[in-house]
User: Fold this.
Amino acid sequence: MDRITAMQVFVSVVDSGSQSAAAEQLDLSRPVVSRYLAELEEWAGARLLHRTTRKLSLTAAGAEMLPRCRQMLELTTDMKNAVAIPEDAPQGLLRITVSTSFGQAQLAAAVADYVKKYPGVTVDMLLLDRVVNLVEERIDLAIRVSKELDPNLIARRLTVCRSVVCAAPAYLREHGRPTQPEQLALHNCLTHAYYGSVWLLERGDEPVNVAVKGNISANDATSLVQATLAGAGVALLPTFLVAPLIRSGQLQALLPEYHPQEFGVFGVYASRKHMPATLRTMLDFLAERYTEEPDWDQAI
Assistant:
C-alpha cells in the first residue's frame, strides 16, 4: 500500500465530506478511494470513519489519526520543497490568524511586503477576534497580543503593544479633560469586550486600577476608534491603531503621567519540529520589521 497516498485520500474524504467528492478531487475512481481507505484502516488496526448513506463521520481513532496524517503530508511537501528549491526561496501556503484590528492596521501591509520579497509564497490571512486551535484549524502562525500565552505553544516575541487613554477634541470641549484616573468615572468610557471595564494603569511602579463605565462596548478595537473619533467618549486604545490620529490632532492623549499596562505581540506556532521555510522566514521578517520600539510609537 502507498501509505502517503492513502493518507491523502483519507484527509481528502474528511475535508470534502464524501468519497465521491474526494475521488473527483484526486482524479481517482470511487472504488480506488474505497480501497485506499480500507487498506489504511487495516494498517492502522481500527475503523477510521463511520459510513452511512447520508454522511461520513470520524471515529475516535479517525479523530486521532487525522491531524497526524495532515502533519505527515505537510512534512512530505516540505521534503520535496527542500530538494526542489533553494533554502532562501520559500514556497507554498502559509495560513496566519490575527485579530481584526492588528491585521488591518499593521499585518496586511507587512504581508504585502513579505510576498513581494518571496513571490513563491501564498499567504492566507484569517482575521478573527478569538483564540483558535492551531492544529485543528490548520493554522501555521498566530499573531497574538497578550500577557500570557498557552505554555503548550511556541512563541516568538515580535514587539510591544502599548495603549493610550484618548478622546476627540470635540468630546473634551463638551465634557472637560480628565487629569486624574479617578475622574474617568465622570466620563463616558468606551470599553473593549475582551478587556472589560477595569483599566489597568501604572504611574512609575505603582499600579492603578480604574473602574469605568460607558454606553458603548465592542469586541473590535477598530470600531471603538471610529466611535471615539465621533466624540462618543473616552477610550483606551492600542497605539498601533491611534498613533497617526494623535499625531494629526484628531484624537488627544490623556493622563500623560499614567501608562496603560503593556502587552507583547507574539508570533505563536505549534511546534519547532519540521518548521517550514515559509513560517521561519515570516517570523524573521516580522521581527525585523517591528522591533522592540515599533515605528507607530514614535513621536506620540
In short: The first strand starts at residue 49 and ends at 51.
